[in-house]
Amino acid sequence: MRALRRIRVAVVGVGYLGRFHALIYSRMPDVDLVGVFDTDPGRARTVADEVGCASHACIADLLDQADAVSVVVPTTAHLSAAAPFLLRGIHVLLEKPIAPTLADAAEIVRLAGVHDAILQIGHVERFNAGVMALAQRIDSPLYIEAQRMGGFVERATDVDVVSDLMIHDIDIILSLVGAEISAISAVGASVLTEHVDIANARLEFANGTVANVVASRVSDKTTRRIRVFQPRRYLSLDFVAQTIDIAEPHPVEGSRSEIARQRIQIEPIKPLDLELAEFVRCIRDGQPPLVDGRTGLKALEVALDVRTRIAESSATRI
Q1: Which H, E and C letters describe the chain, residue by residue?
Q2: How far is it, in rounded angstroms, from Cα 234 to Cα 239?
Q3: Can you list the domains of the chain with their CATH numbers?
Q4: Distance CA 284, CA 3 (A)
Q5: Fewer CB within 10 A of the terminal residue: the chain, N end or C end?
Q6: Is omega for the bond preceding 97 within 30 degrees of 0, making it cis?
């Protein structure tokens, strides 16, 4: 892998989230934002003018100009959008989920490996300061409870709540447990769209850990929390408030113990800024990313299994 001084980066797809990718790259030192592409040329020109780079009429125009690219397009287009860059050995940050199918995901991972390209998957919550602080305090989780609930957002109607929201917590839980899943059960329902809008999944791991995961995009209140129970310690992360509550037994006189509680306030960090900085650092240092292609593939595999279990449970109620 060649050493790079200034890293030339492009953004493919500058809708709501892709625009932020372009804005962040445009502010990075030692990074040249060489151009953006979008299927809506007007949108591409607007964002290009905002960040001070060129807009391009087709992806092919970027292949000879970029060392790396953020691909921020609908999930169904991930393989077709990422493949031209991977075939050239151009490093790719691909938004989550990695692909709509395991076959597409496996091909994306294969292309990155064959052509020596860094592939980072945009599971941005891994770069949440609270999640990183929580992970440092966990060693042997027995039971995990995750809730990710919020109001309806029109732009997310092309996917179900598992792919849209729950996959964040699936990825986090997989990283915390570090064991293979032995069983999955799940239920869900469509409320406002033709896709599942609220879901509950139970993940059982080979090491005995159990996780219960709830995701909803039809709630009137925003709740983003993960609770972890492990021997002699309970931890609860509030993603919104960026606090970690810890409870653990504390010895007092004699053989008695009482519960000692503390709240840790986490210094907020913009997760997307940190995620893109990690991508650039990995390119510069030739290091694998925290969330590589295989990690994204595993999260997708579990998410698709959850969707299958939801479909099976729905069929039995008909």
Answers
A1: CCCCCCEEEEEECCCHHHHHHHHHHHHCCCEEEEEEECCCHHHHHHHHHHHCCCEECCHHHHCCCCCEEEECCCHHHHHHHHHHHHHCCCEEEEECCCCCCHHHHHHHHHHHHHCCCCEEEECHHHHCHHHHHHHHCCCCCCEEEEEEECCCCHHHCCCCHHHHHHHHHHHHHHHHHCCCEEEEEEEEECCCCCCCCEEEEEEEECCCCEEEEEEECCCCCCEEEEEEEECCEEEEEECCCCEEEEEEEEECCCCCEEEEEEEEECCCCCHHHHHHHHHHHHHHHCCCCCCEHHHHHHHHHHHHHHHHHHHHHHHHHC
A2: 16
A3: 7-117 (3.40.50.720), 126-269+302-317 (3.30.360.10)
A4: 7
A5: C
A6: yes
Q: Is the pLDDT of residue 46 over 60?
A: yes
Tell me the CA distances in angstroms from 203 to 143, 180, 235, 288, one per residue in order.
10, 10, 19, 28
pLDDT in tens, 242-301: 999 999 998 877 667 889 999 999 998 999 999 999 999 999 999 999 999 999 999 999
Contact between 172 and 133 under an 8 Å Cβ cutoff? The reply is no
